[in-house]
Amino acid sequence: MAGVQAAPKVSTAIPNPKLSPAEFKVYNGMADHMDLEVYKQGPNISHQHDNFRRTWNTIYPSDGKRPKGMSIRQYLNTGLSFCEHLHLHHTIEEQHIFPVLAKRMPAFSKELDLLAQHRQIHEGLDHLKDYLKECSAGKRELRLTELKTLMDSFGTVLWTHLNDEVEQLGAENMRKYWTMDEMRRMPM
Predict the structure, then answer these.
(1) Which of 28-32, 110-114, 146-150, 157-161 has the highest mean pLDDT?
(2) pLDDT single digits (tens) 7-42
(3) 45 phi, psi to nearest 5 deg
(4) CA 170, CA 109: separation in Å to the nearest integer?
(5) What are the tens digits of pLDDT across the range 44-98?
(6) Is the pTM of this model over 0.85?
(7) Distance CA 67, CA 57 (A)
(8) 180 neighbors 114 (Cβ within 8 angstroms)
(9) 97 near 106, Cβ under 8 Å?
(10) Backbone dihedral region of 78: left (phi > 0), alpha (psi from -120 to 50 degrees) or beta?
(11) What's residue 187's pLDDT?
(12) Distance between CA atoms of 136 and 139, rounded to whole angstroms?
């Protein structure tokens, strides 16, 4: 029949009910752990991903200089600490957290983005760590332009990853895959 148009498709999906503050806290727990976890280290409060961002910004030589008041030794140690903490953080995720999440959440399976991002990050991170170790041992002179190039090689994927991971672990996404009781038993 000429001139007859099909009726537009109407979504029949029923939106999830709004989470109560207590439910949101449970479902958002893993995201909070990544971006809002509180470590009690004296008066300082730091968060896992926020700590990685802060340390990155401290060691990233955007202006071609290291931070004022920081010796070369402190600067190198801060960089090495960043490398080791990020490696440990990802190792724990890959061995203990992602396998549980991957049972229902495609973003955490070995073939998809978050683990692929880990591999890309660690390729650059390994080069950065080797460079910093050589500088620390006196085998190479610290050149901030070289350091910047090494950090630039994985910086974009690192910052994207830090945000993507928290988004995947957010309450609205987690409630699609897990019950409240399951969330309470998560390994974080």
Answers:
(1) 146-150
(2) 455 444 456 788 888 888 888 888 876 765 433 333
(3) -115, 125
(4) 17
(5) 333 778 889 999 999 999 888 989 999 999 999 999 999 999 999 999 888 888 8
(6) no
(7) 10
(8) no
(9) no
(10) alpha
(11) 75
(12) 8
* Residue type present at position 125: L
Q: What is the 3-state secondary structure (H, E, C) of the chain?
A: CCCCCCCCCCCCCCCCCCCCHHHHHHHCHHHHHHHCCCEEECCEEECHHHHHHHHHHHHCCCCCCCCCCCCHHHHHHHHHHHHHHHHHHHHHHHHHHHHHHHCCCHHHCCCCHHHHHHHHHHHHHHHHHHHHHHHHCCCCCCCHHHHHHHHHHHHHHHHHHHHHHHHHCCHHHHHHHCCHHHHHCCCC
State the residue for tokens 């440990």. 88
Q: Kindly tell me the sign of the dihedral angle through the C-alpha atoms of 179, 183, 184, 185.
A: positive
Q: Which residue has the tokens 């148009």?
A: 5
Joined together, the tokens standing for residue 159 give: 């910052």
Nearest CA to 140 out of 72, 45, 56 is that of 72
| 49 against 146, higher pLDDT | 146
Place of tokens 């990685």: 52
Q: First and final CA of the chain: distance in angstroms?
A: 60
